[in-house]
């Protein structure tokens, strides 16, 4: 597929999706969201892709949804829009492979919300996060009011959503918004290192582990435990489970085939 607002590169099982609208700090318009959705579907279906990295490059992740596209919209237009952002975020969040967000510079509004649909967030030291929608007279409408409280708790999420202020990478780490902070010039190396580690794991086990966590978050504990149990049981039907346990007993690294 051909993309204009994102760059898609696949190397050694790792697909890197790079947002590419530098002139507007990677502001996310409908075209970007549609291309992200198409790329997410393509990466999900490509058996050679094991892990996906989403980034905006070294300077900026994304300064949010494209304000110029929204400025004159009416309520009816917004309400009846097919919301490409929602489709893209759903496809990324439910992708049956690990997704890592590698974040440098601003991750604001829809940009911050995009990081929330990744499984793991790695921030460069120069990263800044924020949900400034309140200062535009709106609220975070691409999952921010729902995913952020689930990740960092409602108190901290409300502070970010109500105040609209930016926080630096270290603060994002402290409140659990990101998994780790790395020197800016090592961001891609660190993201690749983590992606490579995940490429060595069993793809089916990863898929079900992601599903168990994500689906479980939508259930009460008892239902979540039952769902986990079903995923766990199913993995005993895979060759990867046999290989993983055999390799442990034979004191050698496992070679998973993803089946
Ligand atoms: N949409 C459209 N264009 C944007 C943009 C956005 N979200 N963010 C930046 N740009 C454009 C600017 O208009 C500017 O374009 P021109 O050169 O043509 O004027 C260019 O990118 C560079 O931006 P600045 O000159 O403003 O750069 P700066 O370094 O002075 O400031 C910034 C950087 C603090 C990130 C500032 O650009 C900013 O505040 N951007 C908007 C952030 C924001 O409010 N994001 C939320 C959007 S709403 C949303 O995301 C809704 C949702 O939930 C889905």
The N- to C-terminal Cα distance equals 27 Å
Q: Ligands bound here?
A: acetoacetyl-coenzyme A
Largest sheet: 6 strands, mixed
Q: What form results from the Cα inertia axes?
A: globular
What would you say this structure looks like, in words?
With 259 residues, the chain is an alpha/beta fold. The protein folds into 2 domains: 6-199, 2-enoyl-CoA Hydratase, Chain A, domain 1, CATH 3.90.226; 203-249, Lyase 2-enoyl-coa Hydratase, Chain  A, domain 2 (Orthogonal Bundle). The chain is 47% helix and 15% strand. It contains 12 helices and 9 strands. The strands form 2 sheets. A 6-stranded mixed sheet has the order 1-2-3-4-6-9, with helices on both faces. Helix 1 packs parallel to helix 4 (84-93). It is globular. The structure holds acetoacetyl-coenzyme A. Acetoacetyl-coenzyme A is lined by residues 24-25, 27, 63-68, 85, 106, 108-110, 113, 132-133, 136, 140-142, 144. It catalyses: a short-chain (3S)-3-hydroxyacyl-CoA = a short-chain (2E)-enoyl-CoA + H2O. Belongs to the enoyl-CoA hydratase/isomerase family. InterPro entries: ClpP/crotonase-like_dom_sf, Enoyl-CoA_hyd/isom_CS, Enoyl-CoA_hydra/iso, Enoyl-CoA_hydra_C. It comes from Desulfosporosinus fructosivorans. Pathway: Lipid metabolism; butanoate metabolism.
Q: What keyword list fits this structure?
A:
single chain; 259 residues; alpha/beta; 2-enoyl-CoA Hydratase, Chain A, domain 1; Lyase 2-enoyl-coa Hydratase, Chain  A, domain 2; 2 domains; three-stranded mixed β-sheet; binds acetoacetyl-coenzyme A
């Amino acid at each position: 597929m051909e993309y204009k607002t994102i760059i898609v590169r696949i190397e050694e099982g790792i697909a890197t999706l790079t947002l590419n609208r530098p002139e507007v700090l990677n502001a996310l318009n409908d075209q970007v969201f549609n291309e992200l959705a198409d790329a997410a579907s393509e990466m999900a279906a490509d058996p050679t892709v094991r892990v996906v990295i989403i980034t905006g490059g070294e300077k900026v992740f994304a300064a949010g949804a494209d304000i110029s596209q929204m400025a004159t919209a009416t309520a009816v237009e917004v309400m009846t829009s097919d919301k490409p952002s929602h489709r893209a975020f759903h496809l990324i969040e439910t992708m049956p492979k690990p997704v890592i967000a590698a974040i440098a510079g601003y991750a604001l509004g829809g940009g911050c919300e995009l990081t929330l649909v990744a499984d793991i967030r790695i921030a460069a030291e120069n990263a800044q996060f924020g949900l400034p929608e309140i200062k535009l007279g709106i609220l975070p409408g691409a999952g921010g009011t729902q995913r952020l409280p689930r990740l960092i708790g409602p108190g901290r999420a409300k502070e970010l959503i109500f105040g609209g202020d930016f926080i630096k990478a270290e603060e994002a780490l402290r409140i659990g918004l990101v998994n780790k902070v790395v020197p800016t010039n090592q961001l891609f190396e660190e993201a690749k290192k983590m992606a490579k580690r995940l490429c060595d794991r069993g793809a089916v086990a990863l898929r079900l582990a992601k599903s168990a966590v994500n689906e479980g978050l939508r259930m009460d504990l008892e239902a979540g435990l039952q769902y986990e149990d079903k995923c766990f049981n199913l993995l005993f039907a895979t060759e990867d489970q046999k290989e993983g346990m055999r390799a442990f007993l034979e004191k050698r690294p496992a070679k998973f085939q993803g089946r």
